C-alpha cells in the first residue's frame, strides 16, 4: 500500500475553545487541494465517550474532564496515540484512491500530544497554533454554546456530577478560576453568570483548574508556543493560510517577515545562555527595523556583559576571568534560599513534611535570589553601555517577561513587547493592568500610557532555517537541463512537493506508528506486498 503514497502531510491544530476550527480547517483544505491533496480531518473529540448532556456547558465540561481523565490513566500523549492509530488504520483504504493525502488533526491541547506526533512523523508533521482575541473568542463561544439562563450554581452542580462519574474530587470553583487567570472583572456584579461561565471554560482550556489533574489536563499555554507556525484568526486568515501552504511547498521567493527574523534572532541569542533554569533571549529593534541591542539570561561579569568563552579549540588557551556562572557553582542560590525560607516557616508553624513540600511548591515562582541577569535587562544594559536610545523601540523576547523585567521595560520607554513562549510565573498582567495592553495589530501611537504586549505570528524559530533556506537551483529556470539565468515562475500546482519531503515516503515512519500501536517493531516487507 505504501508504494502508492507520495508525501503524506500531518497538520496539527492547537487553539483555544474560542477558535473556529471549522473555518481554519476548511481554509487549509482549500489550499492543499490546489496541490493535488486529498484532505482527511481527524477530530480527537470523536473518540470521547458520549454522555447525555444537561446543558451545552456540561457537554463542553464533560469533554474536558473525560479527555483529561484518560490522560491521567493512560499518559499525557494518549490522544496523540489514538490519532496515530487512526492514520495507520485509514491509510490502506485511502492509498488505493489517492496518492497525496493530508491529515488535519484538531485539536491538540497539551505539549506531549504535539511532541509525540512530531517525533513520529518528523518533517511530515507541522503544528499550527491559532490565536484569537479574547473578546472575539467569548462571542464565538457564546454563540456556539448558547447557555441561555444557566446559573453558576446550576453549572457547578453539573460539574460536581461529572467529576463524581469520573471518580474525581470537586474542581476549583468558577469565580476563583476566573480570578486566577487574570480576567478583568472590575464590574463583577454587572457581569452575567453566562459570561462568567464562558470565561471559566476559556480559563480551564488554557491551563487545568482541577487540583488532581494539573499534570494531565489541558495546557494550551505550553502546547501553543511550541508550534511551527502561528496564525491570527480574526484578520486576513485566507492570506495567512495561503502563505503557510506556499512556504510548506517551497516557494523560493518567500522571505521572512520582520517579526519572524527578529524572533529568530532572539532565539539565537537565547542559545548563548547557560542558565540552570531556561534559555531566554531578547533583541531590541528601532522604528526603522534595525537591531540595536541584544541580550540573554545569564550571570553578568564585572565590567559589563556576560561571561562567555568563544574561542575555538584550535586556539591556545588564554588566561581569562574566573567563570562565575551558576553551572560553575556548587548549587543554584535561588533554590538554596527558597529551601531555607520554606524550612524556617515550616519550623515556626510546626508544619508536617507534606505541608512543607506544598509550601515550597507555592513559593517556587520567586526569583529574588537568582544571580542571572534576565534577557530583557541584558538587552537594555547592552544598549546603555553603547549609548543607544531605546525609547519608542520594540523588544522581541522568546519568553513572556516577568513582572520585574516588565517594570524596567516600562521605565526604559520600550513601546512594544513581542513574545513567543508564555511564562505563567509572571504577574505582569495583574501588577501593571493599567499600563499593559495585550493584543495584535494595536497602534502604539494610539495607545498613550500603555506598553503593548503582542503574541508572535508567523514561522516559529524552530522552523525558520528549514523554511527560508534556498539556493539558486530553486530560483533559476532550467532550459534543456541548464540554467538560463531567468528567475523561475513558481506557483503551487498538483505536482508541487512539500519542502524537504521529496524522498521521504511513509516507510520511514510507519515502523514508529506500528511500535506506538503494538509496542513492538513490524516486519516492513508486509507493507510492500
SSE blueprint and pairings:
Elements: E1 9-15, H1 21-34, E2 38-43, H2 56-74, H3 78-95, E3 101-108, H4 111-121, E4 125-131, H5 134-145, H6 152-165, H7 174-180, H8 193-206, H9 220-225, E5 229-232, H10 237-248, H11 258-270, E6 281-285, E7 291-296, E8 298-299, H12 333-349, H13 353-362, E9 372-373, H14 375-385, E10 394-399, H15 403-412, E11 416-421, H16 428-431, E12 436-438, E13 451-455, E14 458-459, H17 464-468, H18 472-475, E15 476-479, E16 482-487, H19 507-518
Parallel strand pairs: 1-3, 1-4, 2-3, 4-5, 10-11, 11-13, 12-13
Antiparallel strand pairs: 5-14, 6-7, 6-10, 8-9, 15-16
Helix pairs in contact: 1-10, 2-6, 2-8, 3-4, 3-19, 7-8, 12-13
Description:
- With 529 residues, the chain is an alpha/beta fold.
- The chain has helices at 21-34, 56-74, 78-95, 111-121, 134-145, 152-165, 174-180, 193-206, 220-225, 237-248, 258-270, 333-349, 353-362, 375-385, 403-412, 428-431, 464-468, 472-475, 507-518, and strands at 9-15, 38-43, 101-108, 125-131, 229-232, 281-285, 291-296, 298-299, 372-373, 394-399, 416-421, 436-438, 451-455, 458-459, 476-479, 482-487.
- It has a six-stranded mixed sheet with strand order 2-3-1-4-5-14, sandwiched between helices.
- Strand 10, helix 15 and strand 11 form a beta-alpha-beta unit.
- It is globular and about 70 Å long.
- The N and C termini lie close together (8 Å).
In short:
The protein has helices at residues 21-34, 56-74, 78-95, 111-121, 134-145, 152-165, 174-180, 193-206, 220-225, 237-248, 258-270, 333-349, 353-362, 375-385, 403-412, 428-431, 464-468, 472-475, 507-518, and strands at residues 9-15, 38-43, 101-108, 125-131, 229-232, 281-285, 291-296, 298-299, 372-373, 394-399, 416-421, 436-438, 451-455, 458-459, 476-479, 482-487. The chain is of the alpha/beta class.
